[in-house]
Amino acid sequence: MNITRLTSAFALMALATAPQITEAQAYELAVEADVLEGWRGQDGRHIAAVRFRLKDGWKTYWRSPGDGGIPPRFTWKGSRNLRTLDVVWPTPEVFNQDGMTSLGYEHEVVVPVVIEPRRAGKDIVLNGELEIGVCKDICVPETLSVSARLPGDGSQIDPSISVALTDQPYAADEAGVQKVTCSVSPTADGMKVDAQIQMPSSGGREFSVIETDNPLLWVAEAKTRRSGNTLHVSSEVMHVESQAFLLNRSGLRITVLGGSYAVDIQGCSAG
């Protein structure tokens, strides 16, 4: 797992496509954030979380927000005793917003963070700046600051973090995925990706998201259709600075969101 890294160009592109963007200062704050301190695991890693509480009718976005969303960006400048930090996103909901699809959460969401400290057994001082989008009738970019001291001897497990950790898509092998192939073809603006995924139905209408390992690449909303035991997922990939690029198939990440469960598929072979 890696912290979501999004370039300013990508963020500006998302802001340009989101409906009725306005200044956050002109409106009452629609979301609050705080840190759940969590616990120190036996392996030395610290499990904490950022909790977002949204006012009624508002929602915020998953790591890949969809065409109707604003991408989140977390930075941890000023934190102490922090070697690495991984954000663990719970499975999102699929929303329809002014004819565009977005992925995210409403009411409250607990987003776990897994931290490796530089000095084992010592406290961690966590300082975070959270740039997120929240939407209701308008979409508002918000910047929230959070801070907490995470005790090096904390051992009591927080149930709300545990629930969020279990609210994850199944891995491909857990979901019975047999084979994943991707074919790539050039388009006027980039590349088209066609993925064929041999897997059982994840329930009801399935929605898919394709992500790449290159933060300078933008992926359009995927089209998903099922034919028997094969799920067909296609999308177009473009460079945010209109440059030529190579597409790493092993770095593609496909998330399938079904009515019964979600599936996280890492990489695909040539089709």
Structural overview:
This protein is mainly beta and 271 residues long. It contains two helices and 20 strands. The strands form four sheets. Strands 3, 4, 6, 7, 9 and 10 form a six-stranded antiparallel sheet that branches. Strands 12, 13, 15, 16, 17 and 20 form a six-stranded mixed sheet that branches. The longest helix is centred in the first third of the chain and has 10 residues, at 8-17.
Write a brief caption for the model:
The protein is mostly beta strands. The protein has 2 helices and 20 strands.
Residue share in helices? Answer: under 10%
- Please state the average pLDDT score: 90
Query: How many E-type strands?
Result: 20
- Form type: globular
Tell me the fraction of residues in β-strands, as a range: over 45%
Span between termini: 26 Å
Characterize the biggest β-sheet.
6 strands, antiparallel
User: Which class best fits the helix and strand makeup?
Assistant: mainly beta
Strand and helix map with partners:
Elements: H1 8-17, E1 31-40, E2 46-54, E3 59-61, E4 73-75, E5 84-87, E6 93-97, E7 100-106, E8 108-116, E9 124-135, E10 139-150, H2 159-166, E11 170-171, E12 179-186, E13 190-198, E14 207-211, E15 217-219, E16 223-227, E17 230-239, E18 253-257, E19 262-266, E20 269-270
Parallel strand pairs: 11-19, 12-20
Antiparallel strand pairs: 1-2, 2-8, 3-7, 3-9, 4-9, 5-8, 6-7, 9-10, 12-13, 13-17, 14-18, 15-17, 16-17, 18-19
